[in-house]
Amino acid sequence: MVPRLGRKIPDTRERIELLKTVYYEAQRAGLDPQLVLGLIQVESGFRKYAVSSAGARGLMQVMPFWVKQIGTTDQDLFHLRTNLRYGCTILRYYLDIEKGDLYRALGRYNGSLGRPEYPNAVHAAWQSNWKFMPDKVAQSSPTTITR
Prior knowledge:
Lysozyme; disordered C terminus; 7 helices; mainly alpha
Protein backbone atom coordinates (compact mmCIF):
# COMPACT_ATOMS: atom_id res chain seq x y z
CA MET A 1 0.00 0.00 0.00
CA VAL A 2 2.89 2.38 0.66
CA PRO A 3 3.76 2.80 -3.05
CA ARG A 4 0.08 3.25 -4.01
CA LEU A 5 -0.10 6.38 -1.86
CA GLY A 6 3.09 7.87 -3.33
CA ARG A 7 1.38 10.46 -5.51
CA LYS A 8 -0.98 11.58 -2.75
CA ILE A 9 1.48 11.58 0.15
CA PRO A 10 5.08 12.03 -1.02
CA ASP A 11 6.72 11.53 2.39
CA THR A 12 7.28 7.82 3.04
CA ARG A 13 7.09 8.17 6.82
CA GLU A 14 3.76 9.97 6.57
CA ARG A 15 2.41 7.23 4.30
CA ILE A 16 3.50 4.51 6.69
CA GLU A 17 2.04 6.38 9.68
CA LEU A 18 -1.25 6.84 7.82
CA LEU A 19 -1.45 3.18 6.83
CA LYS A 20 -0.62 1.96 10.34
CA THR A 21 -3.19 4.28 11.85
CA VAL A 22 -5.86 3.31 9.31
CA TYR A 23 -5.17 -0.34 10.03
CA TYR A 24 -5.34 0.15 13.81
CA GLU A 25 -8.50 2.29 13.84
CA ALA A 26 -10.32 0.19 11.24
CA GLN A 27 -9.56 -3.03 13.11
CA ARG A 28 -10.59 -1.39 16.37
CA ALA A 29 -13.98 -0.56 14.83
CA GLY A 30 -14.34 -3.93 13.11
CA LEU A 31 -13.91 -2.50 9.61
CA ASP A 32 -11.84 -3.55 6.62
CA PRO A 33 -8.85 -1.16 6.52
CA GLN A 34 -8.92 -1.29 2.73
CA LEU A 35 -12.54 -0.11 2.73
CA VAL A 36 -11.50 2.78 4.95
CA LEU A 37 -8.79 3.71 2.41
CA GLY A 38 -11.44 3.75 -0.32
CA LEU A 39 -13.64 5.98 1.81
CA ILE A 40 -10.74 8.36 2.49
CA GLN A 41 -9.95 8.50 -1.23
CA VAL A 42 -13.51 9.54 -2.05
CA GLU A 43 -14.05 11.83 0.95
CA SER A 44 -10.83 13.86 0.97
CA GLY A 45 -8.49 12.56 -1.71
CA PHE A 46 -6.04 11.89 1.15
CA ARG A 47 -5.86 15.60 2.03
CA LYS A 48 -5.36 15.76 5.79
CA TYR A 49 -6.63 19.34 6.06
CA ALA A 50 -9.59 19.05 3.70
CA VAL A 51 -12.72 21.01 4.66
CA SER A 52 -15.98 20.46 2.80
CA SER A 53 -18.53 23.14 1.98
CA ALA A 54 -20.66 21.64 4.78
CA GLY A 55 -17.77 21.97 7.26
CA ALA A 56 -16.63 18.32 7.42
CA ARG A 57 -12.96 18.04 8.32
CA GLY A 58 -9.92 15.92 7.66
CA LEU A 59 -9.20 12.69 5.85
CA MET A 60 -12.54 11.06 6.68
CA GLN A 61 -14.50 14.32 6.50
CA VAL A 62 -15.95 14.20 9.99
CA MET A 63 -18.58 16.78 10.84
CA PRO A 64 -17.68 18.88 13.92
CA PHE A 65 -20.98 18.08 15.69
CA TRP A 66 -19.63 14.57 16.30
CA VAL A 67 -16.99 15.98 18.66
CA LYS A 68 -19.77 17.29 20.91
CA GLN A 69 -21.83 14.10 20.55
CA ILE A 70 -19.21 11.42 21.23
CA GLY A 71 -16.01 13.21 22.24
CA THR A 72 -14.69 16.25 24.03
CA THR A 73 -14.56 19.76 22.61
CA ASP A 74 -10.77 19.93 22.80
CA GLN A 75 -10.30 17.25 20.11
CA ASP A 76 -8.80 18.31 16.78
CA LEU A 77 -10.45 16.69 13.74
CA PHE A 78 -7.34 17.42 11.67
CA HIS A 79 -5.23 15.21 13.93
CA LEU A 80 -4.61 11.91 12.11
CA ARG A 81 -5.58 9.44 14.83
CA THR A 82 -8.49 11.56 16.07
CA ASN A 83 -9.99 11.91 12.59
CA LEU A 84 -9.60 8.23 11.81
CA ARG A 85 -10.98 7.19 15.20
CA TYR A 86 -14.09 9.33 14.71
CA GLY A 87 -14.57 8.33 11.07
CA CYS A 88 -14.24 4.61 11.75
CA THR A 89 -16.45 4.81 14.85
CA ILE A 90 -19.13 6.68 12.90
CA LEU A 91 -19.06 4.21 10.01
CA ARG A 92 -19.30 1.29 12.48
CA TYR A 93 -22.26 3.04 14.16
CA TYR A 94 -24.05 3.36 10.82
CA LEU A 95 -23.24 -0.25 9.89
CA ASP A 96 -24.79 -1.36 13.18
CA ILE A 97 -27.90 0.78 12.60
CA GLU A 98 -28.22 -0.67 9.10
CA LYS A 99 -27.61 -4.25 10.30
CA GLY A 100 -24.45 -4.63 8.19
CA ASP A 101 -25.84 -3.09 4.98
CA LEU A 102 -22.74 -1.30 3.66
CA TYR A 103 -24.65 0.51 0.91
CA ARG A 104 -27.00 2.16 3.41
CA ALA A 105 -24.28 2.76 6.01
CA LEU A 106 -22.14 4.60 3.45
CA GLY A 107 -25.16 6.63 2.42
CA ARG A 108 -25.71 7.65 6.03
CA TYR A 109 -22.02 8.43 6.48
CA ASN A 110 -22.11 10.83 3.54
CA GLY A 111 -25.60 12.15 4.14
CA SER A 112 -26.75 10.73 0.81
CA LEU A 113 -28.88 7.81 2.00
CA GLY A 114 -30.88 6.38 -0.89
CA ARG A 115 -28.66 7.80 -3.63
CA PRO A 116 -26.23 5.30 -5.21
CA GLU A 117 -23.44 7.64 -6.35
CA TYR A 118 -21.53 7.87 -3.08
CA PRO A 119 -21.70 4.21 -1.98
CA ASN A 120 -20.76 3.16 -5.53
CA ALA A 121 -17.82 5.59 -5.60
CA VAL A 122 -16.45 4.28 -2.28
CA HIS A 123 -16.95 0.68 -3.37
CA ALA A 124 -15.21 1.33 -6.70
CA ALA A 125 -12.25 3.06 -5.00
CA TRP A 126 -11.98 0.22 -2.49
CA GLN A 127 -12.13 -2.53 -5.11
CA SER A 128 -9.96 -0.93 -7.79
CA ASN A 129 -7.31 0.81 -5.69
CA TRP A 130 -7.05 -0.70 -2.24
CA LYS A 131 -8.45 -4.21 -2.01
CA PHE A 132 -5.84 -6.92 -2.29
CA MET A 133 -7.21 -9.65 -4.50
CA PRO A 134 -5.58 -12.43 -6.47
CA ASP A 135 -5.68 -11.73 -10.24
CA LYS A 136 -8.50 -14.15 -11.06
CA VAL A 137 -10.79 -12.81 -8.36
CA ALA A 138 -9.93 -9.18 -9.17
CA GLN A 139 -10.90 -9.62 -12.82
CA SER A 140 -14.34 -10.96 -11.96
CA SER A 141 -15.12 -8.59 -9.08
CA PRO A 142 -17.96 -6.10 -9.58
CA THR A 143 -17.11 -2.41 -9.32
CA THR A 144 -20.51 -1.15 -8.18
CA ILE A 145 -22.94 -1.91 -5.44
CA THR A 146 -26.26 -2.77 -7.01
CA ARG A 147 -29.64 -2.08 -5.49
